[in-house]
Amino acid sequence: MPQRMIGQQISFAAENIRRSAVATNRGVTKHSEITKLAKSFMSSQTLSSKDPYLYTSGRWLHRDQLQRTSRSIHFDFPALCARAVGLCPGASEVSSYDKKEGGFNRVFIFTMDNGARVAARLPFRVAGPARLTTHSEVATIAYIRENTNIPVPEVLEWNDDKTNPVGAEYIIMDHAPGVQLHGLWPGMNPEQHMLTVKALARLIQSIATLSFPAYGSLYFADAPIEQQLKVPLGDYCIGPHCGREYWDCTAGEARYYDQRKPNRGPWLDLSQYCSALLDAGFSRTPGAEVAPKDELAYRGSAQEHLRLLEINEKVIPELIKSPSTQDLATPTLLHTDFNKRNIFVSEDDPTIITSVIDWQSTSVEPAFVYAKDTPDLIPIRPPPISVLGDVAEAPPEDPDEPPETLEEKKERERLENDIWISRQTFEVGMKAWVPQIHAARVADDTLLRPLIYCSTSWRDSATAIRQELIELSQRWTELGLPGACPYQPSPEELANHMDLYEQFEVMQRLKDFLIENFDSDAEGWIPPEAWEISKEIHKNALQTWMDEAREGCDPKLTVEIAEKLWPYDHEKNGSP
Fold first, then answer.
1. What does the pLDDT look like over 375-398, one tens digit per residue?
2. What is the value of pTM for the model shown?
3. Cross-strand partners of 159
4. CA distances from residue 297 to 5, 305, 402, 500, 565 in whole angstroms, order as listed
5. What string of DSSP letters covers 487-506?
């Protein structure tokens, strides 16, 4: 499939999105678009947005109904309010509350009639395993309070048994002191940015240098877990991993345990840990009798996925024998989402971090798992023209777009320098204070990708996992690995793979482009105030993409293939 031809299809859709967007890259908004956005925003600011039971913080361009349904919670809201009031001495009732939602939790910020504030956090069922996810989060917060200098909220009350009077698992904690860094960051100067990044690096040092005897999730020693699944750690223990990759809790993703039984830890060494990753990969792969029959070729059949997983079972044990791999596998506890919304700072001095929230699913992992986790304080510089590189051609310049002024150029250069200083500060801090994380961050990706992605073969495609294996086999000796790689693809397999990989790259670049332009994620999450206009943009972009396929400029890009390449199902399913 010629990339340039398909790249042109993507480019047409790209230009459509650019011309339909709410704002240009210089912040100029058309009046008609403002009207649409305002109407959408006003319609979202109804009492339904505070409905305690339903998810109201966004919509999805892909599997919208399933995503929202999986985030509904059936519980007794007045009972939760009563529990919160009882934890605030002198309070007699909740005077107001705010509802905040992420992808995995609903949080209520309760303000009492005496001014006290507490936060109540309820997990969605997609957050992780029942009971264990809540228990582990509370235990992790307590462990961090005892063993590091990271400021975390104080847990006032919690219950991991949904048969309690509230009717759902919950954690009630003090409201985090200070203000969210997210709101202050744009108004901070470069020196403040640098000092805040430095302060965060110091906090990472205090947790990442702790020692652990196994991989898994933290729990209190008396957790309701079978004794043989506990590795003692004083008043705590390491038990089964709470990560969603090991459990049947992801919306729209089934698990199949006929190939392998669940393997959720804890794991005493890297070999056991990697075996669990492979077992998770097998559990995500359906049998041939239930696997979709009309997938694109690059995705691969169920049999091909199983074959590649079996190859990984031979490759990974040899890979982890290398001292260079073992050195990157120190059992490490680290927050996986150090973003500005999870960091609270002093309103008077935003370089002082006052609290770090959202420790859900934080677990003890090999250090290499965190290799590419970069806080959003250090943004990745966007490409200058197109995320599609050479695949899509640059869009024509808008004749109505005024040229960049000298002042705008200076501001752009100032922002770029600010980002560079923040990035350098973080990397230097990691190298000096958290060497095991720094070593993982600078390690060759070819060494780590087969370990990180073997569990997601069915989601990512057979072509993606095969590409990792091919690159590893070709560079095996160069990477200093012992002996010969157990995987040696034939010339025929390599030739066939190249054709499939071309289709895979087109799909990835199309998806990346749409994610960037919708400011969204792989499932197409959209905030409610932008939903109506985003639906219209999506409809136009899909129409352009399909029209180009119908014109038949590229015989390999049929209408059927073009429809399957499109990653969102909103217009296809006639969703509202």
1. 988 876 543 333 333 334 444 455
2. 0.86
3. 170
4. 19, 12, 45, 7, 11
5. ----HHHHHHHHHHHHHHHH
